[in-house]
Amino acid sequence: MISGKISAKVEEYVFGGLVAAIGVFTLLDATTIAARADNAVGPRAFPYAVGVLLVATGVAAIIATARGKLGQAEEGEDVAVDSRTDWVTVGKLVAVLIAHLVLIDLVGWPVAATVLFFGAAWTLGAVWWRALPIAVALALVVQVVFASGLGLSLPAGIFEGVPFLDG
Q1: Of 132, 112, 41, 145, which Cα lies nearest the Cα of 165?
Q2: Which portions of the chain are predicted below pLDDT 70?
Q3: Are 4 and 73 in contact (CB under 8 A)?
Q4: Quick one: pLDDT at residue 65?
Q5: SS3 per residue for 16-65
Q6: Three-state SS sequence of the chain
Q7: pTM surpassing 0.70?
Q8: Measured over all CA atoms, what is the biggest interatomic distance in the chain, rounded to whole angstroms?
Q9: CA 104, 136, 101: angle at the middle one, nearest 5?
Q10: What is the pLDDT of residues 76-121, one digit of tens each?
């Protein structure tokens, strides 16, 4: 029993340390991102925010572990032990992701992201006629936020020249 608690404590320290280390790496790597000086919120803002949150979360996990607050062991009561992996669904999701990666350069972010968002939703059971307009809207919102809000240029592809889609 005691060795189990020691092992769990070590695992939680390692987890907290890894999360904090990933945060430090993110912060250091964000400094290498080229940014225009005239943009108040540039491409470094999001990585900095994520890095700070990762470091804070990792440190909080280490402090909680030191105070004796360990996570509860998973007993698997909500897991169907005898169910198998649905490899067809996994294959469809991988195919949708690969299609997205190929389509970004060919037709641009808005179309590729629509394929990604729609394909993932449909593969996981969404009704196609609901998923498609939501996927289109989500892809366009991401494009506009990156182009107009952050000043980052996602490839517009077939929408090249549309003012609010170009970064």
Answers
A1: 145
A2: 1-6, 37-40, 73-81, 164-167
A3: no
A4: 92
A5: HHHHHHHHHHHHHHHCCCCCCCCCCCCCCHHHHHHHHHHHHHHHHHHHHH
A6: CHHHHHHHHHHHHHHHHHHHHHHHHHHHHHCCCCCCCCCCCCCCHHHHHHHHHHHHHHHHHHHHHHCCCCCCCCCCCCCCCCCCCCHHHHHHHHHHHHHHHHHHHHHCHHHHHHHHHHHHHHHCCCCHHHHHHHHHHHHHHHHHHHHHHCCCCCCCHHHCCCHHHCC
A7: no
A8: 66
A9: 20
A10: 666 666 778 889 999 999 999 999 999 999 999 999 999 999 999 9
Amino acid at 110: P
